[in-house]
Amino acid sequence: MTKNAKVSLTVVAVVVAVVAALLVFTKLGEDTPPAQADAPPAVPASVLIRPDSHRLSDPAGAKVTVVEFLDLECEACGAAFPGVERLRAEYGDRVTFVMRYFPIPSHQNAELAARAVEAAGKQGKLEPMYRLMFEKQPEWGDQQVSHRDTFVGFARQLGLDTAAFEVDLDDPATLGRVLADRTDGANIGVEGTPTFFVNGVKFSGSPSYEALKAAVDRELAK
After folding, report:
1. pLDDT recorded at residue 23
2. Which helix (H) or strand (E) holds 11?
3. Which of 27, 36, 107, 108 has the CB geometry, 3.0–4.6 Å to 73, for a possible disulfide?
4. Residue 145 and residue 133: Cα distance in Å, rounded?
């Protein structure tokens, strides 16, 4: 074999080795799963759930807590409501569900509706009023007129003392309670409604029953 032939063979061998190495590294890159993105930080429980926050269910030893910031006039919140109620029915003995107000200023009756729910709570009917607001939302939502009389009618329907209800409805402390929730929400990044937090982590994606259920199940499985 001539000297030139030996050199050529050596060059070919080197090229083959380099190509083979590149193929191996490429294959390893394909087989190696991408690095998982860091999970978003959890919001401190002291801000996410205040001592006076409304727990719609609060079983002993619950491993999972779902917090919803909602606007009672928000159509998306109204659409999510049946799914949240279904989750409460299925997981209420294992999961804590917390409701917090986040009335959007552009919604004419959102703040008033939150005050009405809060006022009903003074007579032990917070949850029935909360449900009635969503069930009747098409009758009063997305309108540029006050529905105070409508909400007083709801109070009457629930058997409340309407005179006391109206006093509580107009109490500055009631408004302060609602706005405190909204301030907390704004401080932890709530920009729209509904916004859910599952075990302190902001939930992303569509707030459907299936998606929320999957998030709850993941936490329960830990």
Report:
1. 41
2. helix 3-31
3. 107
4. 16
